[in-house]
Amino acid sequence: MADLSLTRRSACKLVELVRAREITPVEVVEAHLALIRRINPALNAIVTLDAERALAFAQAAERLLNEGEAGRPLLGLPVTIKDVTDTAGLRTTFGSPRYKDHLPEQDAEVVKRLKQAGAIVLGKTNTPEFACGATTNNALFGPTHNPWRHGLTPGGSSGGSAAAVASGMVPLAQGTDFGGSIRVPASFCGIVGLRPTPGVIPNHPMPLAWDFGQVHGPIARCAEDAALMLDAMIGLSTLSPISVQAPWSSASDEVRATRSLEGLRVAFVADLSGFGIEAEIETICRRAAQGLADCGASVEEIACDISEGKGAYHVWRGVWMIGQQHERLSDLQAFGSNLRTNIESGLRITTRDIATAAAIRQNLYARFRELFERYDALLTPTVPVEPFSVELDFPATINGKEIDNYIDWVAQTYLITLLSLPAASAPAGTTAGGLPVGLQIVAPRFQEPRILAIAKFIQEQWPAGWPKEISAP
Questions:
Q1: Cα separation of 133 and 181, whole Å?
Q2: pLDDT category, 225, cuts 50, 70, 90?
Q3: Taking the CB of residue 352, how many other CB atoms lie within 10 A of it?
Q4: How far apart are CA 343 and CA 17, in angstroms?
Q5: CA 60, CA 57: separation in Å to the nearest integer?
Q6: CB 185 within 8 A of CB 135
Q7: Is 468 a domain residue?
Q8: CATH code for position 423
Q9: Number of folded domains that form the chain
Q10: pLDDT digit string, tens, across residues 260-303
Q11: 412 lies in a domain?
């Protein structure tokens, strides 16, 4: 019988146990497959399971260990891949009925790297159609539920990945992030999700090869695990024209080595976007930010309103939608209404709109460049509300203010995307109703180790714990 207690172990601990020969990769994979069979039917996080091949790869990993090849950083670790990222011979539907039987011939570059590091792909995770949405639902598979409370959304668009990790079905998952698609579900599911600096993880074969918007990133239950996965994903690639070499050799080593935040200058901003933050969310995030003073950091609350960037982001996103779907523009009626409406909106954008948006973006980046001369990191609530019903595309109001479209409720995250800055969401505690709250950590480009080190201290002080509706194995 599978040892389900292994599904409560961190990725770092599982690697340690596998290398010490205290457990085998097959035992690790079997435990996670057993948990998937038990709880995934209710969560609907993993939409395509590759159990047979996963066990075969686990057996191959055991042979590598027996041959003395234990150096691969993710050897024997199960992972899932978001269903918009190509996986060779494994169904990749993009959450779209028209691609329900699509089998890519090649792995995306990020998947190749994870496999080369020893990771074992268990399956694909749910996403809105072509990742177009900040919740996770589509006509092909239906909605994914939040492990913390059935009937609530895990956020999106990497909601399936976040729900799989938060529930213990996998220790690590890959996601993509353009407007907050890693950070939002990480916040709603009480885990860590990192949007890295564009270029440090190759995007190939994602459309718009020169795009600095959508990136791959790790989703994990703690900062140390996220750093471990990040190290396996980064690196130069000739396949990507914006590929860059990270200025650090190992985020994992740096995060583990950080014992205090002595001397770190931190700014807290309650509301970047001008939409407002629900009072309880703001209180929880302020408390978590101020708590970093106990770890040696100096923390200052400041005002920073970059709401003028909302229109610029909408323009950029509209152009991005057209580029992503360029090959399919002649067949818009085949898509769901959400994706189709976004594409039609993008087609109305003018060159003057694009130029104006670029100017706004440049000015905002200059403001943040100056801000980071005074502070080492900026903290802000990841999401302004707590998780809501899976039947909704977005919350109707925030602090009594009506929201008139499905994307602006995540302006706290998409405005950071607009600036091409790295950011993570870290668990900052739970609401009175027992739902997780995430704190967004933003830093200058290429400061992922600093971001994850801060995330480690936040999570240690205010752990969300395990979802109460997921019983212990």
A1: 8
A2: very high
A3: 9
A4: 48
A5: 5
A6: no
A7: no
A8: 3.90.1300.10
A9: 1
A10: 999 999 999 999 999 899 999 999 999 999 999 999 999 999 99
A11: yes
